[in-house]
């Protein structure tokens, strides 16, 4: 039996669910943290979204149909939770999600958890100028090094559209970084 199939069986069995879930956390927590962090930027917000993601996974694992990889399913939940978080925060602050993203990026230098240098900060600002979909595709490909086939499963978009989005995003980032 494939390792992922075995994990899914253990996750859906009441007798082994808790131990299997701890294994799932160990396998995916760090990767999901950095994926979410690229969307919401703030460390504290990332922790909240990550926790909500794993709560949803734990509560809904029985509805996983196996039509995609387990990681793709969890990644999609994390992505949706991150966007929901941004929408909720922008509504609370009475600004749109892009303004919230700009505000967060502008305050990145003050974030004690941001360990980047000036070049990394400029790259993050360039990424923040992208439309949401291009930003997502760029982060998944550039930072997470995901294959287009995996991205296609997660985002439910064709590989061709993802390649085009990545290419356009990379060109916009290059233009931003060389504009000074």
Automatic annotation (TrEMBL):
Domain RNA polymerase sigma factor 70 region 4 type: 121-172
A Pfam entry, by short name: Sigma70_r2
Highest taxon above the source species: Bacteria
GO biological process: DNA-templated transcription initiation
Transmembrane intervals: none
GO terms assigned for molecular function: DNA binding; sigma factor activity
InterPro entries: RNA_pol_sigma-70-like, RNA_pol_sigma-70_dom, RNA_pol_sigma70_ECF_CS, RNA_pol_sigma70_r2, RNA_pol_sigma70_r4_t2, RNA_pol_sigma_r2, RNA_pol_sigma_r3/r4-like, WH-like_DNA-bd_sf
Keywords: DNA-binding, Sigma factor, Transcription, Transcription regulation
Domain RNA polymerase sigma-70 region intervals: 26-90
Family label: Belongs to the sigma-70 factor family. ECF subfamily.
Designated name of the protein: RNA polymerase sigma factor
């Amino acid at each position: 039996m494939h390792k992922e199939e075995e994990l899914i069986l253990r996750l859906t069995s009441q007798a082994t669910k808790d131990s299997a879930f701890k294994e799932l956390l160990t396998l995916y927590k760090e990767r999901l943290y950095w994926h979410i962090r690229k969307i919401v930027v703030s460390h504290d917000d990332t922790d909240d979204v990550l926790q909500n993601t794993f709560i949803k996974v734990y509560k809904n694992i029985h509805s996983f149909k196996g039509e995609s990889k387990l990681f793709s399913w969890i990644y999609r939940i994390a992505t949706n939770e991150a966007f929901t978080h941004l929408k909720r925060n922008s509504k609370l602050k009475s600004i749109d999600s892009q303004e919230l993203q700009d505000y967060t990026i502008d305050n990145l230098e003050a974030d004690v958890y941001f360990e980047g240098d000036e070049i990394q900060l400029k790259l993050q600002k360039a990424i923040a100028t992208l439309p949401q979909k291009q930003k997502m595709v760029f982060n998944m490909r550039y930072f997470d090094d995901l294959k287009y086939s995996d991205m296609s499963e997660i985002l439910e978009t064709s590989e061709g559209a993802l390649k085009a989005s990545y290419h356009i995003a990379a060109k916009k980032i290059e233009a931003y970084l060389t504009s000074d």
